């Protein structure tokens, strides 16, 4: 199955505008932002499809038992519903699919990356009144129930399996080689979750040079977030050059060099040489 293709430029601009407005709202809605990312990726997703995805999250929340108890009871209830009854989980092969980063597709296929499955868990649980939040462990996103420091962790990628302290330590050690730091267990901010999702999309596209269109819209959305790495502007300029827009890419490389020059003049000179080489491609 071929991965989805973005909408036409006019429609794409509409989705970007909605994404920027939601990202800058006082309380950004995580599911809405995820679905706007999906709309930028999949030209077949429209307003009706977005509404249907939100209604599916509502429907799943309605299937949970009413206030089952403390954090562990909530974690068990989510695992029973989403992991066992509905079959939401992940496999290594899901890392090779763009659809695994798109919320509407994850809801349809019931498969996805750890972070998107965690979005399903948190959005369903939140609607049902659970004390829930995402936990951005290095290399593997999970879900927390209850107060930080005394929470219960669950792994939606593994069907919602409740993690022991040792399990969490092993996940972090496997990803970083370093021990688990208590700060890693803090609730993840919705905008940080979105940036991490977009990073995953960019990583998928980087491994597939023929899909530089995907890398470009993922960078564009990242740049619309109130806080983002400055180096994304350099990455965008490089993508424009790669896609044959040499003049715009060179202009953006020069602009990035002007910013870098304040702290690293040799690096700025290297970027300016890249801009010169891009302009030379027009000759």
Could you characterize the architecture of this molecule?
This protein is α+β, with helices and mostly antiparallel strands. The chain has 2 domains: 9-185, no CATH class; 229-280, no CATH class. Helix content is 58%, strand content 7%. The chain is built from 12 helices and 4 strands, in the order ααααααββββαααααα. It has helices at residues 9-23, 30-41, 47-62, 71-85, 103-109, 114-127, 165-176, 190-206, 212-224, 231-242, 246-260, 265-280; strands spanning 132-137, 140-145, 152-155, 161-163. A 4-stranded antiparallel sheet has the order 1-2-3-4, sandwiched between helices. Strand 3 and strand 4 (161-163) form a beta hairpin. Helix 8 (190-206) packs antiparallel against helix 9, helix 9 runs antiparallel to helix 10 (231-242) and helix 11 runs antiparallel to helix 12. The radius of gyration is 20 Å and the shape is globular. The relative contact order is 0.10.
């Amino acid at each position: 199955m071929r991965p989805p293709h973005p909408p036409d430029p006019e429609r794409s601009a509409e989705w970007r505008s909605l994404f920027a407005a939601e990202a800058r709202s006082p309380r950004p809605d995580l599911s809405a932002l995820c679905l706007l990312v999906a709309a930028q990726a999949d030209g077949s997703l429209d307003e009706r499809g977005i509404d249907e995805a939100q209604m599916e999250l509502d429907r799943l929340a309605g299937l949970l038992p009413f206030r089952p108890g403390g954090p562990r009871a909530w974690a068990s209830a989510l695992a029973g519903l989403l992991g066992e009854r509905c079959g939401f989980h992940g496999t290594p092969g899901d890392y090779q699919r763009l659809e695994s980063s798109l919320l509407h597709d994850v809801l349809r296929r019931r498969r996805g990356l750890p972070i998107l499955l965690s979005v399903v868990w948190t959005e369903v649980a939140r609607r049902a009144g659970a004390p829930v939040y995402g936990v951005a462990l290095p290399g593997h996103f999970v879900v927390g129930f209850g107060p930080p420091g005394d929470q219960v962790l669950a792994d939606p990628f593994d069907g919602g399996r409740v993690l022991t302290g040792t399990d969490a330590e092993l996940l972090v050690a496997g990803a970083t080689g370093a021990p688990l730091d208590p700060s890693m267990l803090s609730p993840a901010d919705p905008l940080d979750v979105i940036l991490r999702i977009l990073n995953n999309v960019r990583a998928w596209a980087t491994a597939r040079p023929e899909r530089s269109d995907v890398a470009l819209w993922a960078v564009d959305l990242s740049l619309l977030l109130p806080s983002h790495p400055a180096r994304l502007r350099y990455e965008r300029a490089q993508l424009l050059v790669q896609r044959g827009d040499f003049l715009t890419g060179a202009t953006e490389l020069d602009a990035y060099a002007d910013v870098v020059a304040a702290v690293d003049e040799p690096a700025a000179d290297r970027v300016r040489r890249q801009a010169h080489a891009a302009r030379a491609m027009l000759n």
